[in-house]
Specification:
Growth Hormone, Chain: A, disordered C terminus, 84% helix
């Protein structure tokens, strides 16, 4: 364990200033968005809207990301990463503030669309920036660090959100969790998001020739092989969209939790993601990248079933923690796996394709889930998620497992493969 920790410390020290500033930006942004996200669904329901409309609101940002990711990758490639990140933060701030202050159906949908635009701009900038900010040897560490940092921030944000809302409830509503208490927490999150602009200003780099190429990078991609690489995550995205956007509703409605308790339980999920993110590189060096992804995803399925159908709070929370840790341990591993199938000039294009496909699948799923919950509760959405996770693991096994048999995935082999 000490050697693992020392390796991570050494890996962090090896990052260049751009990578470190991006990690700080990730922490601050994830912290603010987690505070906002914990109460947003509850706020919408408290305003009197149905879960069907909540499903619509949940789908709009993902649909916006799916629609805009490729266009932004083509037209924003000429801009430095710093400008793109600052624009993303500004748009995100406007979206969060708008959703906090306006309660009409139309404005809520518009600002949800704006939130998706911010997400698309950030997504198509982040992955290529991380790839450019590290050597091939450091890349897996940075992707895992970035994921773990964002999840640690989300853990802290969920805790703070529960405490803040409890405070506002006592101050405004004599202890009741009113819309006003939720809104005050959401506005506090908006203010905290502004702090993420400071590390963004310190990121200094010029767009690469590959980024400026824009549409040329897309035209060079062989679509068939690319879709084979991306398909497992698209299947996962559809399954995740059934449950993950509504996890706070699942706990709140299923166990009638106080907002502070809900904040605590929800904070465990990103903490589990952070732990999982740091597990990935360790397992990759021992069994191979594809085997690691399949192992994490397959082991998470029994815990997903326990989470959905136990009906008891403690088993549900423990199962949710382990499922989240295992499933999300595969994400940074998959990100490097995906980039390894594309040459460097196509990284931003590949990132845009991945972002668009993931968000389209999760948006359709989230919208469908809102309708299904009104008719079947969470039973059918959980069954669909289990089916999707199983199908994705089977697809990876049949199509890509042979890649691990070509050579062992040691740190040296990882470097050679990406090069």
């Amino acid at each position: 364990m000490r050697n693992i920790i020392n390796n991570y410390i050494a890996g962090f020290k090896a990052f260049n200033p751009n990578a470190r500033n991006f990690l700080l930006l990730t922490f601050l942004m994830s912290f603010a968005q987690s505070i906002f996200g914990l109460v947003f669904n509850l706020y919408i329901l408290k305003l009197g809207y149905t879960r069907d409309f909540l499903g619509t609101l949940g789908a709009i940002p993902s649909l916006a990301v799916a629609a805009l990711a490729i266009l932004l990758a083509i037209f924003c490639g000429a801009f430095a990463a710093r400008k793109s990140l600052l624009a993303s933060l500004a748009i995100s701030f406007a979206a969060m503030a708008g959703m906090s202050l306006f309660t009409g159906r139309g404005p809520l949908m518009f600002f949800s669309l704006l939130a998706g635009t911010a997400g698309a701009l950030f997504a198509i900038t982040a992955m290529p920036l991380m790839a450019r900010s590290t050597s091939e040897k450091e890349r897996q560490n940075l992707f895992s660090f970035q994921f773990a940092v964002s999840m640690t921030a989300a853990f802290a944000g969920s805790l703070v959100s529960g405490w803040l809302t409890g405070f506002w409830a006592s101050a405004f509503s004599c202890g009741d969790e009113s819309a006003a208490a939720y809104r005050a927490t959401m506005l506090a999150a908006c203010a905290l998001l502004l702090a993420a602009g400071l590390p963004a200003l310190k990121i200094k780099e010029k767009p690469s020739a590959a980024d400026r190429a824009g549409g040329a990078a897309f035209s060079a991609i062989a679509l068939g092989p690319a879709l084979l690489v991306l398909a497992p995550q698209f299947i996962i995205a559809f399954g995740a969209g059934m449950i993950m956007p509504y996890l706070n509703i699942f706990f709140k409605s299923g166990f009638d939790l106080h907002i502070a308790d809900l904040g605590f339980f929800m904070s465990l999920m990103p903490l589990a993601m952070a732990a999982g993110g740091l597990m990935g590189p360790w397992l990759v060096t021992r069994i191979g990248r594809v085997k690691a992804i399949i192992t994490f995803q397959s082991l998470s399925i029994p815990f997903l079933a326990t989470m959905g159908f136990s009906g008891l709070l403690l088993p549900t929370v423990l199962a949710a923690f382990v499922r989240t840790m295992l499933m999300n341990a595969s994400w940074p591993v998959y990100s490097v796996f995906m980039l390894s199938h594309f040459p460097a000039p196509q990284h931003q294009a590949a990132s845009a394709l991945y972002t668009a496909g993931w968000n389209l699948a999760s948006a359709v799923s989230a919208r469908l889930s809102g309708r299904l919950q009104m008719d079947f509760g969470f039973t059918l959405p959980f069954l669909i998620t289990i089916t999707c996770y199983s199908a994705a693991s089977l697809f990876l096994s049949r199509r890509f497992l042979k890649e691990d048999s070509k050579k062992p995935v040691t740190p040296t082999a990882i470097k050679e493969e990406i090069e």
